[in-house]
Design brief:
Structural class: mainly beta
CATH topology: OB fold (Dihydrolipoamide Acetyltransferase, E2P)
Helix content: under 10%
Bound molecules: zinc ion
Order of helices and strands: HHEEEEEEE
Strand order of the largest sheet: 3-4-5-7-6
Low-confidence stretches: 149-156
Shape: globular
Largest sheet: 5 strands, mixed, barrel
CATH class: Mainly Beta
Number of domains: 1
Oligomer: single chain
Strand content: 25-35%
Number of strands: 7
Distance between the termini: 49 Å
Radius of gyration: 16 Å
Number of helices: 2
């Protein structure tokens, strides 16, 4: 049976980010932006906080940014028992400067010495699995294009 985000959807959210998940399931990384003033709206919501417009657009952006913050989970939380065998795992909040500084959460896969605040990363879109509660996901990995600089920042 063909994948449908609507069938996997967890009931309870307001649904403003549904298009994010639909886009990921098609292999596209899209964030929301106000269609009137072009201000980025992330996390997604229904109305622009800057100009009050209700129209938004979902813009495909390059999944590339820097680690804003991260954490390592040492405990198998009740709501994500699917990840129990992966403990400890790292989750990163990644800032995308080219998308208004939107910060997008995802798992991090890479060596321990790479994960730190400011580390350059790129996102890989993964298909839905039981571990991701049948949602597609973005996984942040070290960005080889800029990770060679010894201080971890972009090369001059
Ligand atoms: Zn606006």
């Amino acid at each position: 049976m063909e994948y449908s985000f609507e069938q996997a959807k967890i009931i309870g959210g307001i649904g403003a980010d549904d298009e994010y998940w639909r886009s990921l399931s098609r292999g596209e990384f899209r964030l929301s932006r106000c269609a009137v003033c072009k201000g980025w709206m992330w996390p997604a919501h229904f109305r622009c906080a800057q100009c009050g417009a209700w129209e938004l657009e979902w813009v495909e952006v390059e999944p590339r940014g820097t680690v804003f913050t991260w954490t390592r989970s040492w405990y198998a939380f009740d709501r994500v028992k699917e990840r129990a065998e992966d403990v400890p795992y790292v989750t990163a909040l990644v800032e995308l400067a080219h998308a208004g500084g939107a910060r997008v959460l995802g798992m991090f896969e890479g060596p321990d010495e790479v994960i730190r605040i400011g580390a350059p990363v790129r996102g890989e879109i993964r298909p839905p699995t039981a571990k991701s509660k049948n949602y597609p996901s973005i996984v942040w990995v070290p960005d080889p294009a800029v990770a060679r600089a010894p201080w971890g920042g972009a090369a001059p």
